[in-house]
Amino acid sequence: MCIDVAKRANDPKHENKEGKEKCVILLHGVTGNSTDEYIKELSGHCTNNGFNVIAVGHYAPANETNLRLMDFNKQKYLDEVILYA
Question: Has this prediction a pTM greater than 0.70?
């Protein structure tokens, strides 16, 4: 799995009262990837408004044979993304 992480802007107006950081996970469409313009624009908007962003990539290394399809409608796969972030 390939993920891109964008840290939130350090701006006191976005500090969370509970001391917890906010995070958004962006999942692109079937043929997309984390470098698509709409993902980059949404990521920029989120980071400028106090959110950390995790964008899932759509890349596979050359000659990789041990790949699996992940259905992000299932919580266990989202938990895996969060674990690696």
Answer: no
Cα separation, 1 vs 14, in Å, equals 30
In angstroms, the CA 23 to CA 37 distance is: 20
pLDDT by residue (tens digit) across 4-56? 778 888 777 667 667 677 888 888 877 777 888 998 999 999 999 888 898 88
Residue 6, SS3 per DSSP:
strand
What does the alpha-carbon distance between residue 74 and residue 27 come to, in Å, rounded to a whole number? 13
**Residue 30 and residue 62: Cα distance in Å, rounded?**
20
Instruction: Quote the Cα angle for 22-23-25, to 5°.
Output: 160
